[in-house]
Amino acid sequence: MRLVTTTSVEAGAILAKSIYNEKGSVLLSEGVELKAEMIQRLETLGITYIFIKDKQTEDIEYKSTLSDPVRKKAIYTINQTFQEIQKDIQLSNSFVVEKASRRLSELIRFLMTELDGNKELLNLLSDAFVYDNYIFSHSLNVTMYSLAIGMELKLSPKELETLGLGAIFHDIGKLKVPLDVLLKPGRLSEDEFIAIKEHAEAGFQLLRKVQTISLIVAHCAYQHHERINGSGYPRGLMGKDIHYFGKIIAVADVFDAVTSNRVYRKAMLPHEGLEILYAGSGTLFEKEIVEAFRLAVAIYPVGITVEISDGRKGIVTHQNTGLGDRPVIRIVEENGEQVNPYKLDMKNELNVVITSCVTAFND
What we know:
Layout: E1 2-5, E2 19-21, E3 26-28, H1 36-44, E4 49-52, H2 68-86, H3 94-117, E5 129-130, H4 134-152, H5 157-168, H6 179-182, H7 190-197, H8 199-207, H9 215-223, H10 244-258, H11 270-279, H12 287-296, E6 305-308, E7 313-320, E8 323-334, E9 337-345, E10 354-358
Helix pairs in contact: 2-3, 2-4, 3-4, 3-5, 4-5, 4-10, 4-12, 5-9, 8-9, 9-10, 10-11
Protein name: Nucleotidyltransferase with HDIG domain
Pfam families: HD_5 (PF13487)
Domain HD-GYP: 113-310
């Protein structure tokens, strides 16, 4: 299977991996022949990348980080829980959140077990799911990235559970922001931007009143937009004044935001998202957290076509644990000419680096 942009796929291509809706039900099944209207519908739904069957890559298999049962459980639990909370538009009922926290804590323990048992690098880009509510999907993704970082940093199980709960609740204050502001495709007015920034305070005020939730979880909601140089919001905190978990969630939050489709821009590829984190390393984000992220997350997903610094092109077939930017590649082209495919393990070839990704199906 090969990972390509939906916009580059032509009618007649065969889908190599099923696409799901936010309830975990199959929207399009593996093996279906894609028609033009199907492809257009996927683009409308915000599916940027899909797996397509291809002769050169028919033996390449992508293994999801989350098993289907756990993924479905996560989607269902987050949707149900957040919808219950959202019914209280003022976010004033701490009993509802207390009940939700118990359910979400159980989910986080499931996710921790799943991550701990999967030795592959975390890769969420290739899990094609259609979500009606960006907050719900973003909360799951940020939780997964945060837990992966925390595990790389050797946090204890108790610390990971608190971090995970802080991550899953980090944007709960956005449930108070009007949808027309959250989903506005154009530039926000000053008042609209202020309304969005208030979600950090709103989330904190709600969570801090819940006796069964650690105050650290409330501070994760409060501080995930703070930056170590003081340029963040809502309080402009610096360095050690920001809780370590808030710093972890900040990295996870930015990465998922830029690698997800939004109404006002297209999703970036993982390596482009990592470049943004590196650009802010030491000024916006803690260096050790960015480095832990790099070690834990697949920067070049299995099935994607890449070009390396000596001009060769190939398809990523495997990940090297702890080396997200140096995968195993099947070389298929040299100097613009097709060659008999052969393996290049970038872990052992330190004289070359990946320079770009080729995501069009016909390239």
